[in-house]
Amino acid sequence: MTEILKKRILKLLTHADYEPVKLAQLARVLGVTSEDYPQFKEAFEQLRQAGHVVIGAGNLVSLPSLSGQIVGTFRANPKGFGFVTPLEPHSHGDLFIPPNATASAMTGDIVAARVTKKGKRAGQMRYSGEIIEVLEHAQNRFIGTLLKEPQGWLVQPDGSSSFEMISVDDVTAKGARQKDKVVVEILSYPSEKYLARGVIIEVLGKAGRYDTEIQSIIRQFHLPTEFDAHCLEQARAAAAEFDPERLDTREDITDKVIITIDPPDAKDFDDAISLEKDSRGNWVLGVHIADVSFFVSQNSPLDAEAKNRGNSVYLPAKTFPMLPEILSNGICSLQPGQKRFVKSVYLTYDRDGNVLARRFANSIMCSTQRLTYQQADKTLKGHTKGIKPEVIELLKNMATLSRTIENRRAKNGMIHLDLPETELVMDKSGRVVDAHPADTSYPHTIIEMFMVEANDAVASLLDRLNIPFIRRIHPEPDALSMKNLAQLVRAFGYHLPRNPDRTAIQDLLAAVKDKDCSFAINLAVLRSLEKAQYAPLHIGHFALASTHYCHFTSPIRRYADLLVHRDLECYLQNRLDLAKDISAGLDLAEIGKHITFTEERAEDAEDELTTVLILQMLSDKIGKELDCVVTGLTNFGVFAQSRKLGIDGLIRLTDLGPDEWKFNTSAHCIIGQRSGCTIRLGQPLKVFIVSVNVPARQLNLAPVKLLVSPPAEKRKGITAKKSKKAKRR
Prior knowledge:
Blueprint: H1 2-13, H2 23-29, H3 37-49, E1 54-55, E2 61-62, E3 69-76, E4 82-86, E5 95-97, E6 110-121, E7 124-136, E8 141-149, E9 152-157, E10 166-168, E11 180-188, E12 196-206, H4 210-221, H5 229-241, E13 251-252, E14 259-262, E15 271-277, E16 283-290, H6 301-309, E17 313-315, E18 318-320, H7 325-331, E19 339-349, E20 355-366, E21 369-372, H8 373-380, H9 389-412, E22 422-426, E23 432-437, H10 442-464, E24 471-473, H11 479-490, H12 502-512, H13 518-528, E25 533-535, H14 559-572, H15 576-584, H16 588-618, E26 625-633, E27 637-642, E28 648-652, E29 661-664, E30 669-672, E31 678-680, E32 684-693, E33 698-703, H17 712-728
Parallel strand pairs: 10-12, 13-20, 14-21, 28-33
Antiparallel strand pairs: 1-2, 3-4, 3-6, 4-5, 6-7, 8-9, 8-11, 9-10, 11-12, 15-16, 16-19, 17-18, 19-20, 22-23, 24-25, 26-27, 26-32, 27-28, 29-30, 30-31, 32-33
Helix pairs in contact: 1-3, 4-16, 5-7, 9-10, 11-13, 14-15
């Protein structure tokens, strides 16, 4: 708890709008209860003794002021300057580094910088800095595209954070060719006069090809791919020894109507559903989860590898599983017509969706039918061809119970964000040929509700038994983030209290549903909330309004769930002492940090490859028009997201029309100083593609129609210029 509180204190103090307050008020702003106040004081005192926070005049709490030298992480800008983010937070924030003072630093490097004062502006001291030493280079290998330029062979590194070209010699040694994707190892880092120099150590293939881009993502994010011989041997042995007829103490539920619902391309079916009524007419929901812990024993080679991977990685048209496919797509997967070992959670509900009873069991099941979300949706709408009669009835009952649970959870404060995802359409070569919003039909909600209920039930059980376990936590948002959210939504004409609770956020989201500003406000709410993470701390899940919560329902693809399965197994064996001994032997906090990192890494890798593939498609569509919505405003331009493709592009202020455009931070809009024309978040815009830079992950856009008409005397010339541009399109 202390570590979480320390992070929350520092996050609040580094917030741009934080104004120093006394310690008791700081606790109130963070929502610290009287029960947790002693731990809060302990966390604060640790930060103060370490010099991370100070108590100044009037007993006001703040970050220490900027000193003569700082150590931090360098972030380069394509225009030559950069910023250093201090490792120890300061009241000033990031330090500006002018173009002639960056030394040999590259993005991500840990550097020491000398701080100099530049005088005051608007009553605040301004600083700049000079990098005096690179303490640690973030990396010495880069992935990029090989280019032949007049000055020689250069590699343009991939990614929006890397701008400097790298000079390479002797490209023939590895057989590299123009526009190949290569891995470069740095020999000397950049200086004021010279580019970085490197040597090609690997050629991945022709840039732009799907297989090449996959290899690039693997290396960029250090994704584990192949399993070693020990893991494969253990997986094969588990498969060979699996005897579905050996019940032992398992409950035989192979005669029940049980179905799985998954995406069309899924192979690792780890959850299945049954639903019946008991003698009193109450619904009894059965959530049956693949019993991976039966096949993957603690401290085995497979366990160590699963822990290292943390989770499966799902990329467009490619999966790197947490477990070998003989398990993940084989004996663990709940395939139709196959007997499989599962852990079952039975939840009995009253007519209002309240849980009356919980029961847990080891079982053996046999899936009656495998459905996709689209098949389930069509079935619920009356298109039942190919669906078994008993499955049709089950689906209808599932939808009824799901809506009851959904209503109960909504009354309790569960927050549902409406943020559409994008689904890529790819040809056989792996090139993206189209994209569209992903399916969001009601069966997705059915499965989500049932999985959340099962996760909640298992966490409640382990809490009651006082067994330490890995939880899925989602801390409450800090007061300043909520204050900023309230200010933003006022610009849209909506009201949010200064310190909104879940109900106020729910009301806001309901009010903007199907409005033009819906996406922007849902996105703003998301950005205002904390990120969910794995930790053994008992602080609940804010968005789900759950006091007890963990991940239990996906042990094939998440290590957190596998750990929870082992705890549940101890309970089923009546060995609570063993569960506590196992937990005592694990550093749950460290495991939580690691699997939170691997989860974020997987998401970043998926986002990166999706962006690359979409940009490659758009690079052949310069001039194409896109329907967009404004998602970001800055002092240099407007970010707009394609409704269909889900990708953001930048509209520079100069492309909006002939006016002097200013970003008004308090009004959350960009205003034309002469015309009074405003651009707001959520505003729809028709744009066309100006340019695409795939290596830099940049998409540049411009409005199809200028937002401000040119002066009369210039209109004719500009119209002619636009006409030529239209012809080029």
